[in-house]
Amino acid sequence: MADLLDAIKARRAVRKYTDQMVEREKIDKVIEAGLYAASSKGQQSPYIIAVTNKDLRDRLSTLNRELGGWEPPFDPFYGAPVLLLVVVDENHKNRVYDGSLVMGNMMLEASSLGLGSCWVHRARETLKSRLGQVILKQAGLTDKTYEGIGFCILGYPEGDLPQAAPRREGRVRFVE
User: Fold this and answer.
1) Total domains, the chain
2) Does the pLDDT of residue 1 top 80, yes or no?
3) In this structure, are residues 157 and 17 in contact, taking their beta carbons and an 8 Å threshold?
4) pLDDT 10s digits, 113-150
5) DSSP 100-126
6) 168 in any annotated domain
7) Domain-embedded: residue 74
8) Using alpha carbons only, how large is the chain's radius of gyration in Å?
């Protein structure tokens, strides 16, 4: 088994992807890693909505670009062909924490499979949009009001992976 700390150090945010679709088996493994994330009181509250349809992915990219205030042709999903949208019931007290752990697990698993990933924001605003509501309905999540935590984008990196920035000194304090 590979050393977990080495895997954590190797994971980088990828912002340039090939157009090659990720195999379903790899997508399933990334999702499984997210489903095994720790959650408050073991409630397993987050849901993962996998978007692999290019048309829907492109519509979400356009919406995300508009929400972020960028001009075309910028793609806030950086060409990644797969979007994993993490959502949690907005009344769940620890929704942001639980959803963030799902995102972290998925990004680590993606890296271990040779995939690139990156956390993209504006998921909360996306779910408030008409398109976001349509996606929730298509996913069968109409029983509650959900908050988007993040988009975990997936794909095959184009070019070399970014290098880790040196870690800042003095960020650990022991109180003994």
Assistant:
1) 1
2) no
3) yes
4) 999 999 999 999 999 999 999 999 999 999 999 999 99
5) HHHHHHHHHHHHHTT-EEEEE--HHHH
6) no
7) yes
8) 17
